[in-house]
Amino acid sequence: MMDPFGNYLVQKLLDRCSEQQRLEVSERGELVTVALNTHGTRAVQKLIETLSSREQRAIAIEALRPGVVSLIKDLNGNHVVQRCLQRLGPEDSQFIYDAAVAQCVEVATHRHGCCVLQRCIDFATPAQKQALVQEIANHALVLSQDAFGNYVVQYVLELGHLETCTQVVSALRGSFSSLSLQKFSSNVVERCLKLGGMDAEREAIVRELIAPTSLSRLLQDGFGNYVIQSALSVTSGQIHNMLVEAIRPYLPTLRGTPHGKRIVQRINGKA
Question: Can you give the residue ranges of the PUM-HD domain (predicted)?
Fold first, then answer.
């Protein structure tokens, strides 16, 4: 199964072998090792596709269960996990959801793990999705600052579920200014500002951004500047006017900076 050429033969045989032969392949104790291999991963993915009975699925699941987090984080193994999500169905994929919830931060902050978590959300039942997004919301502050974790938080926000979005915003409350100064988390702040149907939360975020101890630094910062531009573009009415008036004293200074010029243009275009 791990041979550069033999794995293709195994894939062909899996299409044509008997139920008993397929069961014997599933019972092999080294499925995790094979799944982590560059060539073996293809054979294990094919095995998952061809499992045709509950007994076969149960045996394969038990073989993969002990190494599921290692598989999720592996260049080759993550494809086996994603194939399980696609072909086994939510009930038989519960072992993946259990691991994803239990090791949420470890998985979400990994290059491959963050992609698998997003696919978990895609294929989940409502109950599985709720458990997973709740755990992500609980760790939103840490994940938002991570190179990979921030994508998971943004993906959850993009679902547009009001309760979940409120939980994420609550987890970040009090930190929006500092998050706006960082490369990865500033994207999460912009996503929060753009959430629909959350005017009260948007106002709370803006009030944090325009605090005297924060605004000057945000306006001069390469990432913070884009957050302020987003705030200007998504706010209206009283909160927009409050934001503009808070920025106005800094306009003379902003006119002389590359980032600041864009803010000046936005304000002059709307003021």
Answer: 1-271
